[in-house]
């Protein structure tokens, strides 16, 4: 609120009101109540804060320290500086695992986003049934281990239902998980099947924010469904799509459970993704120093990829304004 003050000279000036510090018994009771609220707030967030410090901050700091040491559990960590990172640069298995990981990410993100976007658009345009939406998200509720076991049975070259159907049509069976060429695409398809429902629901929520009047106006102008999808739906969904792509890239780079159960990194290291190599180095070879260095490199790559995606996709901007 602004007050007008007329001085003796007749000039009119505006002055902001001066806040008078509260005092008295009422003010002291209010301050005491605020101190009580602050204490209650700290008590409520304390479990989450302690968990974050113990299970996130401490392992991160400890792992960063181990990445500069030689550490094999039974002997104390010995500081070696950048030796682990020099070994990583000249390690052919590391680069093979990185290529396998990037191949998996490209397949799972590209196919996963296209399938999820198509599913969400069909749900939005053709049906609003909550039952169908619930059925679509069901695969996401299944654990990665269970999904990998089920698909391993279905893709089995002898008894799998998929191979039985393929043999009935072509007369031949396909080694989906036992072939070096098909191992990564097969594992990527399992990942797409599992995450498709969750991504479709996120995109579906974004579709509901687009005003229906825009589609009505485009329809009156004679625009087809394909043209409305290209020039209305996709541009207005850009912030949601950017978020879904970033989340899918991060989860794809961190893939472990599906690969561990379905192929165990085989055949002949064909599906030995980076997470598998880090796990094997740490818990089979007990070389925690080198495994920590690779984990730190993976963290740096994830941070760089996420930053580039945010900049390129302009995820913090909306075209609806």
UniProtKB/TrEMBL annotation:
GO terms for cellular component: plasma membrane. The chain crosses the membrane at residues 38-58, 102-123, 135-154, 174-193, 236-256, 288-308. Gene3D superfamilies: MetI-like. One of its GO terms (biological process) is transmembrane transport. Residues 1-34 are annotated as: Disordered. It is a multi-pass membrane protein. This is Sugar ABC transporter permease. It comes from Streptomyces liangshanensis.
């Amino acid at each position: 609120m602004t007050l007008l003050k007329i001085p003796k000279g007749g000039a009119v000036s505006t002055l902001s009101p001066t806040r008078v510090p509260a005092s008295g018994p009422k003010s002291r009771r209010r301050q005491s109540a605020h101190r009580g609220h602050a204490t209650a707030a700290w008590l409520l967030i304390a479990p989450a804060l302690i968990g974050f410090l113990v299970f996130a901050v401490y392992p991160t700091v400890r792992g960063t320290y181990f990445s500069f040491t030689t550490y094999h559990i039974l002997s104390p960590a010995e500081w070696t500086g950048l030796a682990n990172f020099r070994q990583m640069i000249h390690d052919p298995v590391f680069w093979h695992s990185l290529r396998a990981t990037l191949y998996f990410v490209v397949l799972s993100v590209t196919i996963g986003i296209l399938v999820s976007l198509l599913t969400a658009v069909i749900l939005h345009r053709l049906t609003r049934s909550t039952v169908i939406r619930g059925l679509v998200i069901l695969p996401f509720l299944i654990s990665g281990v269970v999904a990998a076991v089920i698909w391993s049975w279905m893709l089995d070259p002898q008894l799998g239902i998929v191979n039985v159907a393929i043999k009935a049509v072509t007369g031949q069976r396909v080694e989906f998980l036992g072939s070096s060429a098909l191992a990564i695409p097969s594992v990527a398809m399992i990942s797409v099947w599992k995450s498709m429902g969750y991504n479709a629901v996120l995109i579906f929520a974004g579709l509901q924010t687009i005003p229906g009047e825009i589609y009505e106006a485009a329809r009156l102008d004679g625009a087809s469904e394909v043209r409305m999808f290209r020039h209305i739906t996709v541009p207005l969904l850009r912030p949601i799509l950017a978020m879904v792509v970033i989340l899918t890239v991060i989860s794809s780079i961190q893939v472990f459970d599906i690969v561990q159960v379905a192929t165990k990194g085989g055949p002949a290291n064909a599906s030995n993704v980076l997470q598998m190599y880090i796990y094997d180095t740490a818990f089979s070879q007990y070389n925690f120093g080198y495994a920590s260095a690779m984990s730190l490199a993976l963290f740096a790559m994830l941070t760089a990829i996420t930053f580039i995606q945010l900049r390129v996709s302009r995820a913090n901007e909306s075209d609806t304004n």
